[in-house]
Amino acid sequence: MPQCTLIVNVYNQAKQLDVLLESALKQTNQDFEIVVADDGSADETEAILSKWESQLEIRRVWHEDRGFYRTIILNSAAKLATSEYLIFVDGDMILHHRFIEMHLKYAHPQRVMCGWRGSKIRQDIAERIIRKEIEFPTDTAAVLWRGLKGQVIKPFRTTIIENKFLRKIMCRERHHVGGCNFAMHKKNYELCNGMDETILQYGYEDHEIGARLKNNGIEAVGIRNCANTYHLEHGKSDNPGIIDILPRIHSHKYKQCKYGLKQLDEGSTNDIFIQG
Q: Pick from 25, 79, 110, 266: CA 20 to 30 A from residue 50's CA?
């Protein structure tokens, strides 16, 4: 059994996924499996996975494109995981070479570990990386140098700070789940019944599972400047999400969602996400 499962959420991001998998191959800890949670891609994702399957333990779960079904495909991926620890990332990221190592180092049975996006790679540089015109080493010196040249936004986030005192001074933590980079023990994902499958619109599906985890006594803890990622910047989505949903999410006291990994007799639902 691998130490952890890296669940990679993608939708028509084959070239970005290629870059992410290349960074997965460079991890200092290689004791992990990958499950690609594909929300209906119709691009070359399958060919990219075939390219890497001889070097990485990798599987893909896919369903037909019916819109924003991210919550459903993530639950499907979690069911395929054979390890006891789940690390979730978006498919348009480059992983620091110690990403898996640091997530496992800070894994805690009563916490969900939140890394968010980390540093951002300027869009024109990201496009060159995707086209394989240039490489992107993830060592601190190389990323800080790109930061000095304006190619990486907030390059300081590439550093790994492990000293507790220094982290308290230098790392401003946001204690909520960010869907692009978070991790927890599989038993806790199952405890809250996974993602709420009534959420079928981009918005705060990550905050929502975080609220249920909190109701179960699972604390959200930031690990920025530890489990680092680099976001391949791209054009912004036209979908602004739902900006007035947070009070509803944080007001309910449910520990599980009604429609998630399993269908339960009772639990939270967030059908407001799919109205209109």
A: 79
